[in-house]
Q: What sequence folds into this?
């Protein structure tokens, strides 16, 4: 037996798939995620069209399309272009942002339960926003016009600060997924107490306003929200996609990831910043919409049959789900409108329970 | 060890007496101890006597009851689940009670604290059973994480349902927001009278299951071989926890973290033996609740900070310190 001097050509890393290379980047082309992306896009478009057509002032779908492309009468133009189109866009953008945020976080924590819902972003934002709603008029000494600008701004800052606090407290020679989740639950309980106290000192109409905000609502969202959301997404989502090729390596333990040539702490910090940024912006725009960030990446991962939550498919799924939930929230109870977050919570919580009951291996994957 | 336990119990008993005295004497109006004493022993109908007898004493009695109940419930939850993060509030009991209370307000038009009690009780029962079933059916059993998370999930779901009702109906919101913070204020003696027997029954069940809990802490197999029926012990445990936590929540609204803190503090001198841990937790629960209530009255004068909020502000950092310090099994 003599040692072979020439190695046989290496088989493709993923059998049956052609590798793609471009400079430093390489990957394999998978058809399934592309098909999933396409289907989600179609669902999103249908949900968006229905959302723009249905409501107190119903408009036929053909008229919606005509209005979007410059036709329609004055009433239709007002309803579609100034009310329902921006609202639908905010829903899609917020849902997409939350889902991407969750996908990144779940990959970093190597835990499907990590989500901005749970690690403090959304309750930090909520506490800050309710603080402004309740005390903004009197105690801080600012008028109503500031409050309109101040609530999203306060929510943004609150989300960033509380997630930072959770992260710092969970840091103990590195970040462990479960510790992050449990610290998040602890911080959340404190913030919940603070919010409830604020609700007791508030006037009843302020309490009602805060309650709507606390459930995540797309009501009366306008182009004022679409523009900053779009800008934030345009910056953060490409950053997420560029960093995403690192996510595959981060699924392994730190040493393996280092062996694969990943700068573990740098990659993790960058991804975490993108994730928290997306969740904070989304929460500032629409309040804490529950479970989208938790559920969508896991569903996307399963239907795409990939190892860690796929960014693009999660985003499209999140957008479609949020617009669909808003459609239900607006129209299910006739003329009474629920906040969209209630629908997503009612859909999402049983899924979380299922995730827990199904398998612990799954929960630790 | 025995010596330390006895000293600890004696210290706790003294602390309960001092906390009771503080709770009666300190408030919007501070009443000197000698006048408290005269109001108790020989009331003459002065203003201080009326304040003490009509307001402070019922509130203090309720505080002791609720504190005992939550302290015991916390120790039981931690014992039965072998879960250092056990707390009835974290396991969905509060959210269940809140949801049923809101249903009571909105659907049945209940307006008095007297009426909320039964709804809160039923809700606590339903939620705790659901969380336990889900948490223990997960493969790998009731680890700290599965229980904490199934509690969180049930809380999320029920809170969303609660919110949807209070959003539809402003009257419900107005009543609910004051119930939901957890407070001893304005709960009159009648509320205490409604729940006292549930707490007594729960406490008896709790103390009776102490030996079985000691056996369970060695593992299910050992407990079985020592002659304990694991299944029956667990069922008794869930009944006791529900009675205690449900009655406490029904009486003064959701209070989270008290049941978590107390057993950890008490273990410092009782050790893991439940025959000592449970009674000590009951006493320490009463001390903590009364002191939190007094602090809430003092810091926010002339108003007051509700006891549920004070406890959460103390309990949150405690919980976090606990998570950071321990290697929590799977955690």
A:
């Amino acid at each position: 037996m003599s040692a072979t001097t020439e190695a046989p050509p290496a088989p493709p890393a993923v059998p049956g798939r052609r590798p793609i290379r471009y400079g430093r980047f390489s990957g394999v082309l998978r058809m399934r995620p592309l098909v999933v992306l396409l289907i989600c896009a179609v669902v999103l478009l249908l949900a968006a069209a229905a959302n723009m057509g249905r409501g107190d002032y119903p408009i036929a779908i053909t008229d919606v399309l005509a209005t979007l492309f410059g036709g329609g009468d004055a009433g239709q133009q007002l309803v579609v272009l100034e009310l329902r189109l921006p609202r639908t866009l905010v829903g899609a953008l917020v849902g997409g942002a939350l889902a991407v945020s969750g996908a990144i976080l779940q990959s970093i924590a190597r835990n499907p339960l990590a989500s901005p819902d749970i690690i403090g972003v959304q309750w930090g934002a909520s506490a800050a926003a309710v603080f402004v709603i309740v005390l903004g008029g009197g105690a801080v000494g600012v008028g109503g016009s500031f409050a309109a600008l101040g609530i999203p701004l306060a929510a943004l800052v609150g989300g960033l600060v509380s997630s930072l606090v959770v992260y710092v407290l969970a840091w103990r020679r590195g970040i462990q997924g479960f510790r992050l989740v449990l610290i998040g639950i602890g911080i959340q309980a404190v913030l919940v107490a603070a919010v409830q106290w604020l609700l007791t000192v508030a006037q009843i109409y302020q309490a009602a306003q805060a309650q709507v905000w606390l459930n995540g609502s797309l009501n009366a969202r306008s182009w004022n929200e679409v523009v900053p959301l779009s800008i934030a997404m345009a910056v953060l989502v490409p950053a997420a996609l560029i960093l995403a090729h690192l996510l595959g390596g981060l699924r392994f333990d730190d040493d393996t990831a280092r062996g694969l040539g990943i700068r573990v702490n740098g990659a993790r910090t960058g991804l975490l910043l993108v994730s928290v940024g997306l969740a904070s912006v989304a929460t500032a725009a629409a309040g804490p919409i529950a479970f989208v960030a938790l559920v969508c990446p896991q569903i996307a991962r399963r239907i795409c049959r990939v190892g860690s939550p796929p960014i693009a498919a999660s985003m499209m799924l999140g957008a479609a789900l949020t617009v669909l939930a808003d459609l239900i929230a607006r129209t299910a109870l006739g003329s009474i409108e629920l906040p969209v977050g209630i629908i997503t919570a009612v859909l999402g919580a049983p899924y979380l329970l299922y995730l827990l009951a199904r398998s612990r291996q799954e929960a630790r994957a | 060890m025995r010596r330390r336990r006895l000293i600890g119990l004696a210290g706790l008993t003294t602390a309960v007496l001092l906390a009771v005295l503080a709770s009666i004497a300190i408030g919007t109006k501070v009443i000197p101890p000698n006048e408290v004493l005269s109001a108790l022993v020989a009331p003459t109908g002065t203003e201080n006597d009326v304040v003490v007898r009509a307001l402070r004493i019922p509130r203090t009695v309720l505080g002791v009851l609720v504190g005992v109940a939550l302290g015991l419930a916390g120790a039981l939850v931690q014992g039965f689940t072998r879960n250092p993060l056990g707390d009835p509030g974290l396991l969905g009991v509060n959210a269940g009670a809140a949801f049923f209370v809101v249903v009571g307000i909105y659907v049945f038009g209940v307006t008095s604290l007297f009426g909320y009690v039964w709804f809160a009780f039923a809700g606590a029962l339903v939620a705790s059973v659901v969380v336990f079933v889900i948490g223990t059916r997960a493969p790998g059993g009731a680890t700290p994480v599965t229980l904490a998370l199934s509690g969180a999930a049930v809380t999320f779901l029920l809170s969303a349902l609660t919110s949807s009702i209070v959003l539809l109906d402003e009257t419900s919101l107005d009543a609910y927001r004051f119930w939901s913070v957890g407070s001893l204020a304005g709960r009159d003696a009648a509320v205490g009278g409604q729940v006292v027997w549930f707490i007594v029954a729960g406490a008896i069940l709790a103390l009776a299951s102490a030996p079985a809990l000691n056996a369970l802490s060695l593992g299910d197999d050992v407990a079985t071989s020592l002659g304990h029926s694991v299944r029956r012990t667990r069922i008794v445990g869930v009944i006791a926890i529900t009675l205690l936590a449900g009655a406490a929540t029904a009486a003064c609204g959701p209070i989270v973290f008290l049941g978590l803190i107390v057993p950890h503090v008490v273990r410092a001198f009782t050790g893991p033996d439940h025959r000592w841990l449970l009674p000590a937790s009951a006493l320490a629960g009463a001390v903590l609740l009364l002191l939190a209530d007094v602090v809430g009255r003092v810091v926010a004068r002339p108003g007051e900070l509700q006891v549920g909020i004070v406890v959460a502000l103390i309990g949150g950092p405690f919980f976090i310190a606990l998570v950071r310090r321990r290697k929590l099994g799977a955690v």
